[in-house]
């Protein structure tokens, strides 16, 4: 067979298709893959062939060769079976430039070819999903690229079997996998007369065990009641004027109810569920901050309010051409920060939850007294926190519960910093019982949008009976989630304070939050101390007389 016949034969066309299918399923060549390729090559021929390597004249034009003529070849020195390699194609037959293929149909390229383009900085790994089409394959190629760049294996970060369709262009960019977090459940929490099991995702041992004890106390006490007092997400653009008089004129314009109605119409033209409640101007020098407050249905609402505010700013710019819109977010909102304005005015859901614990439950379950709980609680949460200069930190550990529920239900984890602002009060009632109340003025949550539609997070919301948007009453599901969070915070506060009163906090953490794994670095360090050397010490006591037998050895384990 001639070179042209070889390159253009139907068998080689089939072979190329087979190779292409295999390479698309493979991250890298391996012995197993090579064997499979050889098998497929053999299958492409109508009859068995023997590898032939000869020295001398070129006999490629011959269709066949007898066994006798092959005895002089060097093939006898090469292990069998080996398939003859096709001749090198001429320049006209050379494959198209990989970059040109990438521009037209990147899915035709092998993983290795794409990796070479990445390594040469010819293409960007951020574009892989769009160009390759197969999202999991894009993740796999990016992992190889990052492993090469960082010289750190990513095998322990799983990536297979995940639905990247719902993540792409929605939740995360430059994806290399996903991070599983242990998720547990506490409860039932008796909240507003309904028993609810609450999912919590955390890596902190003891947290769920302690919160679960708090749920039991609440159940034995008749439940916790919770209410949403206000529902308003905020965004605060900042504008600038050259003259103070112009800035003052602008503030008066905003404060005019007639102008607010126009702004409200502009705002609500951008959203189905968002309702503009108010715009609060704040003059500073020649700058003006505008704090937009709006209800946002079952969405947390940051994007909704930002979009509506941006539309209003276009209208205001037309009314005040000299105004310079510095930014759509001037930090007067304030987003993802523990701020006084959020504590005083609220942001998201303003929630209050309270539970009255009978004196006998305090004694029998919490193993302490009402008087001791009140004394420690007031001094810790009020005096100690105030001396620390806190903003919204008058509590035991509200952030623990908020973070765990946020992670489990697909909330914006960065908003834990403001959503966990909480004032916990401890009061002895006239009957000698203990009343515990949590005020949380900035619970920024939603049951639609963000990560709430991811499978695991959606299942967690379904456990709480508040997944998705409420068709009956928009906003009801997100309010339910806020009440669950505040009620669970009450449970966590009760149990932790009791542990502090009984001095069992340290011992409980030593039991449930005591991992000995990965304490001393990773395997790639030059020397890793043996665990037994770090946790064990031995004291040997020898007799004063060297000639006397005996002595004593004292061994102490787990000294840390």
Q: Any chance you could write out the topology, listing elements then pairs?
A:
Elements (H helix, E strand, L loop, with lengths): L2 H6 L1 H15 L6 H13 L54 H8 L5 H9 L8 H5 L2 H16 L32 E9 L2 E8 L5 H14 L4 E11 L2 E3 L3 H12 L1 H12 L6 E10 L2 E9 L6 H18 L4 E4 L12 H6 L2 E10 L1 H6 L5 H18 L5 E2 L3 H12 L6 H4 L2 E7 L5 E10 L11 H9 L12 H26 L3 H8 L18 H5 E6 L10 E6 L3
Mean pLDDT: 84
Cα separation of the termini: 77 Å
Structural class: alpha+beta
> How many strand segments?
13
The proportion of strand residues reads 15-25%
The number of domains: 5
Sheet with the most strands, sense and barrel status: 9 strands, mixed
CATH fold-level name of the largest domain: 3-hydroxy-3-methylglutaryl-coenzyme A Reductase, Chain A, domain 2
The share of residues in helices is: 25-40%
């Amino acid at each position: 067979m001639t070179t042209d016949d070889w390159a253009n034969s139907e068998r080689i066309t089939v072979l190329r298709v087979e190779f292409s299918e295999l390479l698309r399923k493979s991250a890298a060549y391996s012995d197993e893959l090579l064997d499979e390729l050889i098998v497929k090559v053999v299958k492409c021929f109508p009859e068995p062939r023997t590898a032939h390597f000869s020295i001398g004249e070129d006999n490629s034009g011959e269709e066949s060769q007898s066994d006798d003529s092959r005895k002089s070849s060097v093939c006898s020195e090469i292990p069998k079976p080996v398939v003859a390699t096709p001749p090198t194609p001429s320049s006209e037959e050379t494959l198209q430039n990989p970059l040109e293929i990438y521009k037209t149909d990147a899915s035709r390229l092998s993983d290795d070819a794409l990796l070479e383009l990445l390594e040469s900085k010819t293409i960007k790994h951020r574009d892989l999903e769009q160009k390759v089409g197969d999202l999991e394959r894009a993740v796999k190629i990016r992992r190889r690229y990052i492993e090469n760049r960082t010289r750190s294996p990513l095998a322990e970060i799983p990536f297979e079997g995940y639905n990247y369709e719902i993540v792409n262009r929605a939740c995360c960019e430059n994806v290399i996998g996903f991070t599983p977090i242990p998720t547990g459940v506490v409860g039932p929490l008796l909240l507003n007369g309904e028993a609810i099991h609450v999912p919590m995702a955390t890596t902190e041992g003891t947290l769920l065990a302690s919160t679960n004890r708090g749920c039991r106390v609440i159940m034995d006490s008749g439940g916790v009641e919770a209410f949403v007092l206000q529902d308003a997400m905020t965004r605060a653009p900042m504008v600038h004027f050259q003259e103070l008089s112009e800035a003052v004129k602008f503030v008066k314009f905003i404060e005019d109810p007639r102008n607010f109605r126009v702004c409200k119409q502009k705002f609500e033209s951008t959203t189905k569920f968002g309702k503009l409640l108010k715009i609060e101007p704040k003059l500073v020098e020649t700058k003006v901050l505008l704090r937009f407050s709006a209800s946002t249905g079952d969405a947390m609402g940051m994007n909704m309010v930002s979009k509506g505010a941006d539309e209003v700013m276009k209208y205001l710019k037309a009314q005040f051409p000299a105004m310079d819109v510095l930014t759509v977010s001037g930090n007067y909102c304030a987003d993802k920060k523990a701020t006084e304005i959020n504590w005083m005015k609220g942001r998201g859901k303003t929630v209050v939850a309270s539970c009255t614990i009978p004196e006998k439950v305090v004694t029998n379950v919490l193993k302490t007294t009402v008087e001791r709980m009140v004394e420690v609680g007031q001094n810790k949460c009020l005096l100690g926190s105030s001396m620390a200069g806190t903003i919204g930190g008058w509590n035991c550990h509200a952030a623990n519960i908020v973070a765990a529920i946020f992670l489990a239900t697909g909330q914006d984890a960065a908003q834990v910093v403001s959503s966990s602002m909480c004032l916990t009060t401890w009061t002895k009632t006239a009957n000698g019982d203990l009343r515990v109340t949590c005020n949380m003025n900035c619970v920024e949550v939603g049951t639609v949008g963000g990560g709430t539609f991811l499978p695991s997070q959606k299942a967690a919301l379904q456990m709480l009976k508040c997944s998705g948007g409420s068709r009956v009453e928009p906003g009801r599901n997100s309010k339910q989630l806020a009440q669950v969070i505040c009620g669970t915070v009450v449970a966590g506060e009760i149990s932790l304070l009791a542990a502090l009163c009984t001095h069992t906090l340290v011992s409980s953490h030593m039991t449930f939050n005591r991992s000995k794994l990965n304490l001393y670095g990773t395997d790639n360090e030059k020397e890793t101390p043996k665990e037994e050397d770090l946790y064990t010490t031995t004291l040997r006591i020898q007799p004063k007389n060297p000639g006397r037998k005996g002595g004593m050895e004292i061994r102490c384990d787990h000294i840390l």
